[in-house]
User: Fold these one by one.
Assistant:
Number 1:
Amino acid sequence: MEIDFQKSGGLVPAIIQDQRTGDVLMLGFMTPESLAETQRTGEAVFFSRSRNKLWKKGESSGHVLRVREMRVDCDADALLVRVEAAGPGVCHEGYRSCFFRKLAPDGNAEIVAERTFAPEKVYGPEKTP
Amino acid sequence: MEIDFQKSGGLVPAIIQDQRTGDVLMLGFMTPESLAETQRTGEAVFFSRSRNKLWKKGESSGHVLRVREMRVDCDADALLVRVEAAGPGVCHEGYRSCFFRKLAPDGNAEIVAERTFAPEKVYGPEKTP
């Protein structure tokens, strides 16, 4: 099985889904190296486009994503990673899922989830929004 | 709410999730224009990177994706589209979800879903894999 990294410029989008609840938690990108590290360690490792380097989810917060199952799509250019998420949430803004805002047809966004942790206690004050 | 289309070169990844079952059905990409069409019509419209044009899901098969809720992530660079999917499946290979293969740590892929329709009857013989 060859994953097609070329369509997104050397990356594949990786959807992170909570295996127990089915909730979509976040979307990251993986390079061949981060996919290999994910498979080797059993915990999700992404490629950070803003920092231009591998990024192990949870390396500072402890909120690692333990891989329970990986799926690949028909065109082999997207991954679905079903995980058990350690800790109270994956989002650096303090929510269980990064998709905590509903987008209305008029373009307005509304927060529809409860905060599950205080990001400044996990990441330190300099990292909070 | 400004969606950040620049990080993926004018596109945002859009995760399609079955609102009822929570299953992730596919991943597509949207441009500002396809997002606007999705919001205007209430049915998912993507940008096809291979054909380089807008692509309304279901335009040939009738398997449209009726948008029930849209979510946007913390960085505003990914969308989660919760849908009611018309028809027996979204995948052009005849499955309910495009993520019908499990990816093993050794890189092998195994089909873990049942076919729900015969693609050659929906798309015609020339479109089947």
Note: Helices of chain B lie at 32-41, 119-123.
Number 2:
Amino acid sequence: MKIREAVESDFEEIWPIFQAITAAGETYAYPTDTSKGEAQRLWMVLPRRTYVAEEGDRILGTYYIKTNYAGPGSHVCNCGYMVAPKARGRGLATAMCHHSQQMAVELGYKAMQFNLVAATNQTAVKLWTKLGFETVGRLPKAFCHQSKGYVDALVMYKWLKVQIF
Amino acid sequence: MKIREAVESDFEEIWPIFQAITAAGETYAYPTDTSKGEAQRLWMVLPRRTYVAEEGDRILGTYYIKTNYAGPGSHVCNCGYMVAPKARGRGLATAMCHHSQQMAVELGYKAMQFNLVAATNQTAVKLWTKLGFETVGRLPKAFCHQSKGYVDALVMYKWLKVQIF
């Protein structure tokens, strides 16, 4: 499994992953009916960098890194990770999160923040916690889960300066 | 004092307020050297609505309202408020915050979130707390204050559904 920076043509393989995850409406703050063009803008154009995790010539996961807030907030980055449903449980999210922390430091960021982690997404919460992210906030009913309705969202945060992982 | 929706030509009066506040680098996550054109985009174009508080024909304050996150997060709005330095201590921020909560409900939002309140900005923290906002998170060293260096930032949140203020 190799992680490399994405190129534009990778989006053809990223799109089914993006679509499956956002259509579920359980984890990401993107509209469940986000169009392909808008998805490309959100995942490939707006972020500072986009990466893919591939096995052979198949893309199994992807993540982006971007500056979370500008100016006095610009030393904190934000990342989003997606793993193809068929490739779950194989450590791709862990590998991509490690990689993203390394990239974040190289890009000059001092901290990484996840702004809106659905509290129901226990797989993610457990994983980020294991990887050193602290739950620094809890937003009451800030995430409208497709089947569970309004659920709390967590703000998770890690200072990257001294040690990456 | 009257609060009304901003029109494009209002930006000539908004700009000195915006510039004074962002150049100080103490409260807003905008670059301290944000250009006039970029400021107009950030304050007047990107938000869903922008309002001004005026006395006679002079603009003394302004705020925006926008959707904080898309899709499953889109019932939560975000606002930013600016008061002209010469008009401080006269209740304009309070009046604008009350107004914004009313507008938020009218626009269909269920909650309001402030993403990055510098913990050193005690005037704001006290005021938002008084107006019913809860400090739901604390981001360690997430704000680089122009003179104090890295300071914590607070996430403040208010569910608007039942009662506005």
Note: Residues 75 and 110 of chain B are 5 Å apart (CA to CA).
Number 3:
Amino acid sequence: MTTRTPATEPAPAPAASPSLDDVTGWWSTAVSRIRPGEILLRGYPVQQLIGQVSFAEQIWLMLRGDLPTAAQGRLLEAALVAAVDHGPQAPSIAAARMAATCGTGLNNAVATGVNLLGDVHGGAGQQCMEVLARLEEAVADGAGPDEAATHLVREYRAARRHIPGFGHRFHPRDPRRDPLLTLVGQAAADGDTPGGALRAGLALERALAAGRPRPVPMNIDGATAIVYRELGFPPELGRGLFVLSRSVGILAHAWEEKAAGARIKGPLPRPLLPGYEGAAPRDLPPGERR
Amino acid sequence: MTTRTPATEPAPAPAASPSLDDVTGWWSTAVSRIRPGEILLRGYPVQQLIGQVSFAEQIWLMLRGDLPTAAQGRLLEAALVAAVDHGPQAPSIAAARMAATCGTGLNNAVATGVNLLGDVHGGAGQQCMEVLARLEEAVADGAGPDEAATHLVREYRAARRHIPGFGHRFHPRDPRRDPLLTLVGQAAADGDTPGGALRAGLALERALAAGRPRPVPMNIDGATAIVYRELGFPPELGRGLFVLSRSVGILAHAWEEKAAGARIKGPLPRPLLPGYEGAAPRDLPPGERR
Amino acid sequence: MTTRTPATEPAPAPAASPSLDDVTGWWSTAVSRIRPGEILLRGYPVQQLIGQVSFAEQIWLMLRGDLPTAAQGRLLEAALVAAVDHGPQAPSIAAARMAATCGTGLNNAVATGVNLLGDVHGGAGQQCMEVLARLEEAVADGAGPDEAATHLVREYRAARRHIPGFGHRFHPRDPRRDPLLTLVGQAAADGDTPGGALRAGLALERALAAGRPRPVPMNIDGATAIVYRELGFPPELGRGLFVLSRSVGILAHAWEEKAAGARIKGPLPRPLLPGYEGAAPRDLPPGERR
Amino acid sequence: MTTRTPATEPAPAPAASPSLDDVTGWWSTAVSRIRPGEILLRGYPVQQLIGQVSFAEQIWLMLRGDLPTAAQGRLLEAALVAAVDHGPQAPSIAAARMAATCGTGLNNAVATGVNLLGDVHGGAGQQCMEVLARLEEAVADGAGPDEAATHLVREYRAARRHIPGFGHRFHPRDPRRDPLLTLVGQAAADGDTPGGALRAGLALERALAAGRPRPVPMNIDGATAIVYRELGFPPELGRGLFVLSRSVGILAHAWEEKAAGARIKGPLPRPLLPGYEGAAPRDLPPGERR
């Protein structure tokens, strides 16, 4: 046990007297091996993958280390297709559009948008996956799904916390919910996925609706969380996959703005000016400060 | 004509006295329409796209405004699959891996890597598309492809400039060249793509090899440039598509690092220290400066 | 109480039928008022500030809303001077240096480095400020500083957690500790700052050293945490101020790399290659996948 | 001469068989030397700088390698103070404010804003410095400043190009111009700076006004360009210094938004929706695509 704490500085030493092997080992990876004339991705030569696997299957391979089944690949593809865009009212899209008018590369505009997919804007799917994992665990321990869901909803309400992945302040019913749940329901029925996360998510939706005038249907974060858990992804990769998906919309919007040629686009059309609620105009106190 | 110049400030006004329509119009887009209960992507309801189009087709739809043919979709998919990763020796990958150890979200790590795909690291494909466009234009004006290519190579050599998309300081022959050229050759032979960019690229490769002991084969930037031009993408989107593709490898590497739990990973294992070639140790000149 | 949860989408509406005032109000700020011919910063016309206040005083004004006393300004200046750089072994510096070789603007290189100052790399000062705040509160409630510090150290050790701001895996004694503590000690003695955070920090240092063969002296995060709390900054701005300070070193390093003209600099000099610990080379399973 | 071209891949090898010295040399720097217990910044021990140099002087030292004179330090300080903010109508500020509502760290919000200070939004100062350098060179070659400026204005007008650093679409007269020019005029009169860039800038301002109903006064980019050239900074660092300055405003605005607690703030208050000018709603063509 130690109380020595990491400062804002580099990482610990591998050895007192490092060798060149320590140096190359410092950057070791299981993702790819690049040598002159060779590009192995998770063990497969890249030339065998090109033209043979879909982009979604390639994403799976790179993140998971092995190829998906055809059914898994299709389900992943559907979730990636679903979340590409939510228009310029999403700050990730708006920021990328503004970046594209400031004289940066298109890559910088995409990076700007992706940078905004933080815990609040991009993290709900990841958080919902963690909630589903808890429910699945409770069921594995013998609880009924509805019982476990009711218990969890009660706990969240007592703590005045929101359950991530349900309800939408914009859509009364998220149009992406039904097609995703249909696909994952079919996959589970066919035995292509375990089905536990789907059952947990539906139980949670029922528990949330109980005793309320209107249901609180799953949103895109909830529906993709079910898909990604059925496919066995860890929660953090839920956000990672959302990043890959939303990057498509971010790029499309940034490109539209760049192609239109706007320059230094702010949030308001002129001559509208932001409101001001600060100190009244005042003079610097007398006396030479310097 | 005017010499008034943009300063580092916001964009011009739409009207002297704006209305709410000017405000919503300021953020107008042709990419998507989001209303309560509705997500239209390029006119298509999102629920019709989920499960029906591949992720690569969705990318095409979002960037181009219409769906690709099946052949176009497959060719795009192959190019996206090809460029996902080049290992931690690529700074985009290394930077993302380091970011993942600093306590940021996975989205911030991906944004960090994407931010590095600038003119030099990510722009060669875009630049090669511009070169191909010049050659195609010369051919459209009546020149033979080899003649036009020889002329262009001579011009670049005279200016001591590199032709982007050819040669690789790492791979004697880029393993991604052949499978991509095979696929685009098949597509052109089948009439699925026009074939002009392919002919221009091959003529350029021949012209570059003429009179040299070793050929200078196309690299990934050149091969994908041919594919993207055959598919009709503007050059700037060449970089955009590379960003989408490389984001996959960036995410896979960032996730590997995050899952391994390293903290504040610098480029060198300790106790190795960066070299120093600066001023010798010295004392601050005497005299109270403040 | 509600269980409706935010999805990855925009923020709530101000009113059912917004007016232009709602639009300008949406972007309201107390930081500055910009009108044609006028730039008010926290109420002061910018032309009165130029040449009259130091850059550190300007930083204080912008973040706090009022000008500091001369003593406060000097103390802030010292802390900003202290943390500018820790060399390329810091990932924020290394990532910015790599970015500068990839054909991006210098601003993108700085942004890349700043993006890495996350919870782990840039957050220790902020976290230390929270710890100091707890101790100060305990003292305000009647506890002695040493008693409160000993209790807190015991609590952290029981939870096997590190106390942020103390110890350094690189420096046996951080050379920035002593000059910063001397300055803040003088300020407290002169009545320019309250002194409570300094007393809390020193008590914590003593409590950490008790019963150990070697002390665990404050590092830069701990020393600046004391300064920033003595000056009344909230913990989150501890990270913000570190960002402003470290940006200087990030810029200096990015510029050095850019001026030297390196292109696409990876972490290792060639021909060194990253190690590989992944799947052995393998062939794609037979069977047409597409 | 070679036609081998860089691909989007890492940098060239230092040697066929590298040693550990090549590895540490790969990361060599003249900016700082960090060893256990030692932090040298441009040769000075950090503990000597803390409390002795101002933040602006530290910035100079880090970027230039030596300490400024007191007069140089004050002039740099004035320019840094001048450019900190231009309100949320600047996209760099607006994007950072939006980022702060998305659940990212304050460092990520600052990085987001800085990332937008590209060629158009942050590059005008840098470009103006290049124009001033051309004029100074012409004067050094024997031309009169007004003659050279008139020639340059004619050339730009013929090419229908803007001269960066003059005019402002927002301010009829930028309030930051006069105090900065007063200070740099005093410095030049006192012999603290050479004066050539100031004379060039004023000649350019006169040439731009000649024959026009209204003058086209220097804006902040022009005024700081004069200051930075008088101080001997290379043009690219003009953008670098603007980044350091504007980071202060970006941080102040991001913090204001974060402290207010908004979540996922888009550009428009609801229920306002972005306009739509895309394809009419349509159905996916029949036929199974998958």
Note: Chain C has a mean pLDDT of 93.
